[in-house]
User: What shape does this take?
Amino acid sequence: MLKKYILAITLVFFVVSFTEALGRDDFLGTWELQDNSRSIKIIKEGELYYIIEFVHLKHELYFSGDGKEALFIEWGKGPGWDTTMLYLNGDIITEMYFSEEYEWQASEYVYYRKP
Assistant: This one.
């Protein structure tokens, strides 16, 4: 009985880990604004995910449990009003910001997956 319980727990762990990676991996790639004026690149190095903006600024991403939202904080600043969230909806990422009313609001930056 104990062996079946351990096997079931192990299986659930691998399924959850695999599902989480799938959601996170959906962010990978290069994303551009519709007018091509700005782009971001999301990469994976080992187990960590990073967003690269303005070609050289690299920030670690912190994902929600469902893998559809990712926070990044400017390096060295810590969480604050400038904390940004990326919301993934299919092949579109919307950059969100934290409003003065303590709510996430969409910014004008909507990125599309670059083919």
Notes: The chain has one domain: 2-113. Residues 1-19 have pLDDT under 50 and may be disordered. The CA atoms of residues 19 and 67 lie 9 Å apart.
